[in-house]
Amino acid sequence: MKILKEGDTKKVACERCGCFQNATFKLRDVPVSDGSGLVKNILVGVCDACDTVAVIPHQSTPAIKTQLDKQRKAVEGRVPSHLIDILNLASDKLGAQTDFVPSLIKYYIHALSKNVIAPTELPVLLESELAKGRANKRISLKGRYIAEEVERVKASAHIGSTTELLKGVVLKINDEILVHQKQDRIKELENLVAATA
């Protein structure tokens, strides 16, 4: 792969002009094609004739991906403090630090969205005494697919709010890791902890 730099020129097919034109590589802000935002200050080939972005070099792809990831909305909810304690205890049981908690929750949301874990069990867990309490702690998750996976699980489990879903996920973690100590799940998560430590 040839690495281009600012000021380099190349003949490119310009969509706006409808023909091949000379393009100069410059730093520009580029709108995302689906209208979801703006990727700032990336190297692009600008048509010398019409001054529009005619080509985006492959080397700009990681910068675009990074900026798009930053623009993704976080999934958030407020839960009772004892649910955070459960997450911290589960992480400890798996041999991880508390900074593993977001990964643990995302693992479960992903497994629930793929029906590896049955999402229909969540509403039952939400009826338990542990689901109650003043919501004074925040859970915030970021990831490329987390928002769509949360929506998928909410639909499958017939849970209306993201906060209730997060509470159900924490209670599922409690059930599998701390209460019933489901060994196959624990082993899989311990491997994940080892791989990310």
Question: What do these coordinates show?
Answer:
The chain has 197 residues and is an alpha+beta fold. The chain folds into 2 domains: 9-71, Roll (Ubiquitin-like (UB roll)), CATH 3.10.20; 75-196. Helices cover 43% and strands 23% of the residues. It has 7 helices and 6 strands. It has helices at residues 61-71, 81-93, 101-113, 122-125, 146-157, 162-179, 183-196, and strands spanning 9-14, 19-31, 38-47, 53-55, 75-80, 135-141. The strands form 2 sheets. The protein has a 4-stranded antiparallel sheet with strand order 1-2-3-4, covered by helices on one side. A two-stranded antiparallel ribbon has the order 5-6. Helix 2 (81-93) crosses helix 6. The longest helix has 18 residues, at 162-179. The protein is elongated. The model has no long low-confidence stretch (mean pLDDT 92).
Keywords:
Ubiquitin-like (UB roll), 2 domains, alpha+beta, elongated, 23% strand, two-stranded antiparallel sheet, 197 residues, four-stranded antiparallel beta sheet
Q: What is the residue-mean pLDDT, rounded to a whole number? A: 92
Structural class estimated from helices and strands: alpha+beta
Largest sheet: 4 strands, antiparallel
- In spatial order, strands of the major sheet run 1-2-3-4
- Total DSSP helices: 7
What order do the helices and strands follow?
EEEEHEHHHEHHH
What's the β-strand tally?
6
